[in-house]
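User: Can you model how pyridoxal-5'-phosphate sits in this protein?
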Amino acid sequence: MINFNQPHLTGKETHYMYEAVNTAKLSGNGMFTKRCQQWFEQRYGFRKCLLTTSGTDALEMCAMLCNLKPGDEVIIPSYTFVSTALAFLREGAKVVFADSMQRNPNIDAETLESLITPRTKVIVPVHYAGVACDMDAIMNIAKKHNLLVVEDAAQAIDSYFQSPITNHQLPLGGIGHLAAFSFHETKNVTAGGEGGLLVVNDERFVRRAEIIWEKGTNRAEFFRGEVNKYGWVDIGSSFLPAEINAAFLWAQLENLDDIQAKRKALWTRYYELLKPLEEQGHFKMPDVPNYATNNAHMFYIVLPSLEARTAFLKYLKDNGVGAVFHYLSLHSSVYYADKHDGRALPQCDRYADCLVRLPLFYDLTLEQVDHICEIISTYYLSHC
Ligand SMILES: *Cc1c(COP(=O)(O)O)cnc(C)c1O
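Assistant: Here's the modeled complex, given as structure tokens:
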């Protein structure tokens, strides 16, 4: 059986975790936490980074920083992981679901303006599979209507938006006012199973982000000597990961270029071998627009119908391939259905019914990708 995912170890994880233990500073915000945060700030030019215990937590911090009032509206794609919506719902916001594009599962920027009302406060683009949303369009709409943009960059480490207008290459997570990354074990790098990162790009939010991160205390300012005592000054929660997790993450970040090169080689092999089957009309391949780069977070294909997908997944399973479907759209889920205004979201439905993700992880081999593609080719030879 070829698993769908397998977490990768670079070999240095336990070494750094041991080092963390030996510093006798095990709680958060120690040497490894600072090292990881600085790495992101320096490599991508992010204004301020704070490690969190999960991507979900980073999104919750974003939602808290947006300072929403009950009834404020937040536009999010319906085809996304539940945390994107949950973080804002918990702050009393009303979530307004947007449809995906026909070309890929990212939010359709062309439908955004029709969803904006006087209560709209935030847009949350999700860079699905690490492929950029149309950030020129989204940032322009946000500017025009004075909205905040929170990037759900959970899957988007080391991926870029290449603006056709300015010709600049901007790192995902560095474009919106705030952003969230995830280091869950299914992502390109992991902090030992669970972890995340809050990115603050807008200076206005830096001070409050540090406070919320530390349970509502101004400890960070105290330790920098900016105030002579610290106290409870705001809301917050326990968002800091332990040093053990930061140490694990550090071993992965140090090897990011190697991890990315390997994942991209596997992704490209899938693409080349499956392209002929797309040309025969069996399914659609992943679409990476000219304005986006590919960080090889995921390799997916989109089949023509739910029936076709069900049969295909069963065949792959019977042949030892751990392929899986992905999100059930939020607007048709048990908890969110009655929070939705009833608009049809046909592209979200299509991806919920028809998308298939194939195994993609560092320790997968090119030979295994060849084998999976051969199984898929045989399927279409015998079924169509
Ligand atoms: C993984 C993921 C999250 C949540 O991250 P966790 O670290 O698992 O909490 C949120 N949004 C998207 C799009 C994700 O893929």
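A couple of observations from the model: The pocket of pyridoxal-5'-phosphate is lined by residues 54-56, 80-81, 83-84, 126, 152, 154-155, 182, 184, 196 (CB under 6 Å). The two ends are 25 Å apart (CA to CA).
User: Helpful, thanks.
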